[in-house]
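Predict the assembly for these four chains.
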Amino acid sequence: MDIIVLSHEATEEDIRHIIKRLESWNLRINLSQGTERTIIGVIGDTSKVTEEEEDSIKAAPGVENVFRILKPYKLASREFRKETTEIDVRGVIIGGKKVPVMAGPCAVENMTVLASIADKVKAAGASFLRGGAYKPRTSPYSFQGLGEEGLKHLAQARDRTGLPIVTEIMDPRDLEVISEYADIIQIGARNMQNFRLLLEVGTSDKPVLLKRGLSSTIKEWLMSAEYIMSRGNQNVMLCERGIRTFETATRNTLDLSAVPVLKQLTHLPVVVDPSHGVGKRDLVAPMAKAAIAAGADALMIEVHTNPEEAMSDGDQSLKPEQFEKMMRELRPVAEAVGREL
Amino acid sequence: MDIIVLSHEATEEDIRHIIKRLESWNLRINLSQGTERTIIGVIGDTSKVTEEEEDSIKAAPGVENVFRILKPYKLASREFRKETTEIDVRGVIIGGKKVPVMAGPCAVENMTVLASIADKVKAAGASFLRGGAYKPRTSPYSFQGLGEEGLKHLAQARDRTGLPIVTEIMDPRDLEVISEYADIIQIGARNMQNFRLLLEVGTSDKPVLLKRGLSSTIKEWLMSAEYIMSRGNQNVMLCERGIRTFETATRNTLDLSAVPVLKQLTHLPVVVDPSHGVGKRDLVAPMAKAAIAAGADALMIEVHTNPEEAMSDGDQSLKPEQFEKMMRELRPVAEAVGREL
Amino acid sequence: MDIIVLSHEATEEDIRHIIKRLESWNLRINLSQGTERTIIGVIGDTSKVTEEEEDSIKAAPGVENVFRILKPYKLASREFRKETTEIDVRGVIIGGKKVPVMAGPCAVENMTVLASIADKVKAAGASFLRGGAYKPRTSPYSFQGLGEEGLKHLAQARDRTGLPIVTEIMDPRDLEVISEYADIIQIGARNMQNFRLLLEVGTSDKPVLLKRGLSSTIKEWLMSAEYIMSRGNQNVMLCERGIRTFETATRNTLDLSAVPVLKQLTHLPVVVDPSHGVGKRDLVAPMAKAAIAAGADALMIEVHTNPEEAMSDGDQSLKPEQFEKMMRELRPVAEAVGREL
Amino acid sequence: MDIIVLSHEATEEDIRHIIKRLESWNLRINLSQGTERTIIGVIGDTSKVTEEEEDSIKAAPGVENVFRILKPYKLASREFRKETTEIDVRGVIIGGKKVPVMAGPCAVENMTVLASIADKVKAAGASFLRGGAYKPRTSPYSFQGLGEEGLKHLAQARDRTGLPIVTEIMDPRDLEVISEYADIIQIGARNMQNFRLLLEVGTSDKPVLLKRGLSSTIKEWLMSAEYIMSRGNQNVMLCERGIRTFETATRNTLDLSAVPVLKQLTHLPVVVDPSHGVGKRDLVAPMAKAAIAAGADALMIEVHTNPEEAMSDGDQSLKPEQFEKMMRELRPVAEAVGREL
């Protein structure tokens, strides 16, 4: 809370009251009495002013508006740390010159299918295997994932291919078991503001891939990263996966401008998931290229050997041969913007 | 999945393949071959077709679009149960002729303040005391609630006033302790699709107030109610509290049309929270009146004796005298639409 | 432009440059140099600072953000005129204690149907007849309205019933002919920012009903009213008709909170059109009640004797008997909030 | 209107009534009576069914929903014309292998500034000069453009540089004078559904650049293109320039997924305007690269020699040296996706 705009009707008494309050927090003020509005500029370290203190100023008599100038996140901000964070996962760097690709099925279904997909994405150049063992589903009657069995399959696929694995957590009670297997823990879009879950993974030493909520602003997203980081875990990457808008031609609206915006605001690496962003197989490759051109540090892509029989999100999964073709097309784009695939 | 539209390029082979698939699920089909598109109407009990089976049809070669006709929720649907569910909480009915009002502070701060607020909302005619002991906050540096101490204060306020209490759960691990104290368990907007939490409260015998997610469609909201109900707990009420839109004049956009829409789709009672919906004290009373006129079964209102010192959301809390005035104004509106306050 | 926030990297040179600029516009400044940001408070009559001058400050080196405190509209603001404007249309007042209802078909189809509808809405208590002679349609292949013939039918229906008429303008070239017949000229949602059309009706002496654009903020809407008023026509009423959001259960999302927000910001009367807002017949009556409870000064309702054969928007039109029933139900609601129907 | 879903309560009488209606339009039907719903598949050339006829079916007793399968636009559809339309403007092709760049100031201010900008964008490789003579501005008190004088400056700049010019039309009455000067006529976002203006430019022989409305779906956008084409003018290009969402970090949300979606649905060339899409200078270059990677056929970029003194949108204008740098960076990206700059 750094600028306080007083309403027309604010009295001298109102102003004195606010100033007294600010001074009790060791802040100094700078009063601008204009012809139509009085403005209080707040001087000093306002970063220690809490949300509730800010709310109390908003609620004070005579106050029309409060503008907060300082960013409400610190650890996540580019001002806190100038250079982009490089996260090293079993030797693969996220946030460096190379743009690693995380690929695999939406949900882990069985070992045979997973092994086959893992082999193929590895051959096409993927650096990580993704796959869900615990699945958030809109309907209670849908397949909810294999649970620990799915984690075991993922670990086995990692043994087989050498690809580190990314998998989702939905419940703080699952952190222990997931940590046994996963290399990167994913927080899904619907849990971006599941604050207890954020705090829990904040105590972990595993890197966290934090997906953007369907209707979350970039600021709220960074606040959720701050939750994790405030508990000690600094290895957070942010994954854009589409926001909810009025447009129905795509499943969501992939907000690629979030990539350069994040590059200005934060030192955390930025991942893009075009599969969930657009929800349609044919649109994945062009948006993957655009993501790299916009500056993404990594990609997450759904691949399935038999999309038609996938137990979740088959409609947006690439077939291995489509994935392989896309990977070939991505290489020159990465080079054109000074990166490598 | 009830209607399948085939694309221009669908082959005879594609069509046979889909029909075979549907028949393996004991469904019959009705083929309409138009001049430009072929349409497959699916006949039989498609309610057993899972989301992943539907996805697999969407992903099949030759398929352009799939329209699902049946609602994906059952227990929550008005077709499943014709008459509105009446939820009895310590003798107060939600879903009946009377429109109970749930009032109190956003967060429980200390016993003195809570007792004072409880006394005043009781005197003005409130039927429930609301207050958060566990608070979801955007920032990790903000006040996160008093936890069990807050629950104890709420119980003490209930002893004092006789008002049953409504309080929020954020973590499945807190269900036991919250159940000891609460009369209604609230699921907040940010947790509307925290599916593990939904399943957990589904095993409870406490009524659940399920807030709408900031960007959730009415259908998704009903699916989340279905999650709870599928576990056995049928006492679910739905609380509209504003959706996220482009408009910034209000904190959220209170979607009052959701009230009559829900009245058609579901038998569950509908609560409206205008305080969070608009986020500004002066707008609460007109929107509370509008909510009742639109058919709401109950209201949830934030009240604080000293909004300026509230530890959360002071900007939108009514002062007791404003609350009392609003209650007086609501009575004739309730009567005008055949209800009582 | 009233508060200028400078970035971290702003130099003394940058600051001097901005100050010099502001002083050239006869503004004084108040410098707050905080530990992390420097803030310039602008003092003097900033209302003469144009949008482009504000833009130029935003684009100046060292500037991070500019907050404009004063409202960009004047004639439309509640500060400019304290009491609500009452618009007298052939003796019917909009903006007074009585809440007039404007009813009729979406489009004028022929004299027989129009006469029948006009008689029935008159009998049920409507104060205006609405009907489109020039229709904005999404498709070039749809019925575009009868044009001047439709205006003649409307005038004839007015002669018959005494109801003043409301009809839409789409093209500045039609102002002359429409003015011959209409009592209120409507600007549709899609033309809310058709600035040339706004300027044109601003020169007219007919009252203007300005619908809110599908994705217009309340501020932009008031700026469009200002366009009309800046040309001399002060008889503007604002009509909320639903905004575009992600929700698909209703045609649009009727933003009723706009009603009390507008009541604070402007002296212009506020009309609500629930028919377009929800797009479904069954939802019109509850939302009409809610609109009055929220403080609307008038309602606009679509009515058709044979909705099934309506040439436009039949899905949301009430039948005369439904309209009559709604009018009966609205009366007690109006009385409950100190109004009359 | 191709599939009609009947409600639970539809009677035999209702069904007969609908069938009779469809048959009167020379359509045949295919009835699917399921256990819970009856579905009518419509067979025959439904493209002649008008919007109002479709509405009348929606409004018929017993009808729950109507799904339209065929696209409501024809001339604009990829099915109507397989190969991408190439628009030749004074020898520069839009829609071919080369990706031309349209650059220049938001508004034309005076000849000196315009000449200087034109020279510089030409030198950096732009193929068109853009600049507004008639400017849509939110406020009636802002600079509205130089009008015909601005058009003359543009023509003079074309004589000087050889760059064809793109300029906006706001009023059908200006078509004649604008046609004298412009090479491409632009329809701005706010006028995308100004249907009279669309019909007017549809009679012109000048190519039209149709910007997407702030809250327009891709389908509505194509319907607006259809308006123009239905009058004879087939040279329409579609320009994505950002949609309105809840995110405030950027001015709008640039929907780049619209590019591959349009490539599937239409043969019309697709232009992207990242300057308006993001509204901040620093974000323009990354989004321009992303646009080309996603498949854009042309770019539109704001450039100003002195953004700080620009009379409109200075905040998002590149300086000539920034534009020149961006052009250099775009070349390898274009080549990486098989195009040329």
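Chain C touches chain B at residues 215, 217-219, 243, 245-250, 253-261, 263-264, 277-278, 282-283, 286-287, 289-295, 329, 332-333, 335-337 (CB under 8 Å). Chain C has two domains: 3-67, 87-336.
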